[in-house]
Queue: 2 jobs
Job 1
Amino acid sequence: MPRQALLLVDDNQDNLDSLTLAFARCDYDLVTALGGQTGLDLMSARWFDVVVTDLKMPGVDGLDILRKARSLNPPPAVIVITAHGSIPTAVEALRDGAVDYLTKPVDLFELRHRVAGAMEKQRLARENLFLHEELSQRYGLESMIGDSKAMRDVFDQIKRAAQSRATVLITGESGSGKELVARALHNLSPFARQPFVAVHCAALSESLIESELFGHERGAYTGAEAARPGRFEMASGGTVFLDEVSEVPPAVQVKLLRVLENREYQRVGGTKTLRSEARVIAATNRSLEAEVASGKFREDLYYRLCIVSIRVPPLREREGDIPLLTQAFLNEFSGATPTRLSREAFERIEQYRWPGNVRELRNVIERLCVLRPGAIAGVEDLPAVLGGASDDGGVVQLRVGMKLEDVEKTMIDETLRAVGGNRTRAADLLGISRRTLQRKLSGGDESLEDDATGEDEARDRDGGKDAQP
């Protein structure tokens, strides 16, 4: 793992020298700033885990340093040093977000102790941020439901592949559970306590994906007011999961290849070469071989990604798993009085081919539990595609003579309505990439596409996340 970074800020060089000496034997990436303005500049240029600053300084003071820290994401922990007579101001700093304060003359042993405590809290905060995004979510095989031979084979592959840092390519149809496989690989690995950082490549425009992966320096582009670490830097010694990797643009594919081959990369707008020890797991619902043949995906990158390949079977190939999954989802979404299925409804669910896979099944069961809480749901409560009467069967009426652009808009709108606004699923049904769908929805304006990606990604996660495979 990279060393944790410590910034010392004081307007007195002798004080800085004394503080520096105190941390000489500590394994921190130690940086000093003579004066508050220099401290602000350094905080804009790079990221620190902990900042120790004098409170009273001419011009830019410790409170200005604290305000800068609070504006950063993630924010560094700030410890302030104050004269005895300035304790009320130090208390004000604590209310404004400082984690601790010490009075002068500084007990260097005590300072080291408090910095170590702040560093540990920062490490735990980062771990919680990326490993426990949802406290109720479990990442191991226990969260994956299935007893079919096809899934037992997948479980065996996961257990074997999890013990190495080899790159893994997960393939399978949309909604089959590829992200859960990636999380299981991470959770069962020797570095499970390190961060798992997911990047949904199709949800990011070409102008943003490089910065998201590798980070950027201050001033790298308009709006980059401070340096920001990328996902590879955030993942540290853990795992970077590249979902829908086929959507990575060619220019970024070259840089991704370099990370896989040499573990090296540079931030956008930077010149310093950084190293990443993160394991890479990629997933796609497309045939990368076909993408390579058409020239859309680099052949050398494909071979680097495909060191280990795991195919997640579609639900229609998982004999006997539909009843297990159905009951699991009924248990998950039912209230105090469980929703049940009539024999006829259960048979329809078993016989359906589920083109949307586990995600589609999960959404259907959740809908039943919402609309028929504590009741016995019958065939009439199922979606029309399963023989129910709960919608219009997915029929779209078009007028003869409609303009092609109006036909396209109608098809997109109706498909989104049918899948509850899930753009990933809609793009799959329409036979286009998710980025193409977003561009059409924004009228070709990529800036609107950029604004929408975060909201869209959240909707796709909440309304159609990779459910238990």
Job 2
Amino acid sequence: MSTVNNRDDLHLFELKVKGYIAEHSLLDDGCRTVVGLSGGADSVALLTTLTALGYECKAVHCNFQLRGEESERDNLFTVDLCRKLGIELTVCKYDTHGYAAEKGISIEMAARELRYNDFERIMKEKDARAICIGHHRDDSIETVIMNLIRGTGLKGLTGIKPINGNIVRPLLSVSREEIESYLRERGQPYVTDRTNLKTCYTRNKVRLNILPLMREINPSVDNSIIATAEHLQQAYEFYRSSIEQTRSKTVSEEDGRLTVDIENLKQAPSVEGFLFELLSPMGFNETQIANIAASLDSQPGSRFISDSHIVLKDRNKLIVTPLICETAEPLTIRTIDGFTAILPDGRKLKVSIKEAGQPISKQASTATFDADLLPDTLTVRVWREGDWFIPFGMKGRKLVSDYMTDCKISLADKERQLIVVERENIVWVLGRRSDNRYRVSDTTRQQLVLTIV
């Protein structure tokens, strides 16, 4: 994919960006693109450069309403700029604090989700080919340093990529100084976010305190970091190829659960390195990963838990499953025909009401009960120690834990086993066995059927 505008009057800055776009095949000739426009120097330089290069730009300004009058100032600035440039502008306003509270996430994460969700939506609405963002070379350098400070794998030291899905970053070859110089020479104003000058934020500390000290030691440290990141990117491609080869031999996936063959894992060039790439995206830290690697020759039963997943050491395998917390909010099921609910593990449970005498399915995913013996609502939750039921066809009680042991259910499946209860009485050990007290009999008038779909 090449770019357009071959005018002789292009600024050297614009020519440099044009060359970078062509080198990395970022945009088609004259294509329509969404451009994130905050009003700051980076986004203003991006918009004016892409316009000069002949791209059809559709600007989007996100007002997160977090900085009072400054937020409104930025909003008005982008409206005026786009009017002068003759560029269509979409303004998105958000209750960022409310969204963060609703989702239980940080303000920074909320702003990111809101911004990129709308970028994707607007790209589709405008039939654009890409979403252009104003990240530049200094941003990539700062990202490498920040990742190094807090600890990272090889990938975290490769910097910001020019393409990530629909996101394109045409300014990664230019520095902040070059951006400001370009705007100054063009006589193009921009706005400054005062929070970028506060060192209470980690990235600002890196930008304002750490990088200047590094430049005193090595005036060309920026070039050194970028060159190193590019070398590491090349090394990462070899590394990733090795990881994928090991994964294909070692890991299988079914119904959202990963199974890692321990004997094949031990043949990997680096057991901890492979486990880091596999498990760190699931929230496991370096200490946990080291402990998991050390557990490979231990007895079954070891458990390692992140915020979202659990790793269980079984006999000859590691089992990785999404975490279903015992304290999670129970799910209410209404016993009316056609009711469907999404279970905590992502499956669906469907309720059906049938007349008595209908054939009863013997599939493990279906259980049939006497509808008159059950209340208007049932509850689905994770089983707990001490839970018991009377298995179908039996008369005596049996602990759920003993039942699962007798059935040789794996440690991973035990951890996430769901049960259906009415009050505290178990109706169904989900997907396994129903309780005899609620069975269909000769006196049944209606059948209540629960089906996992």
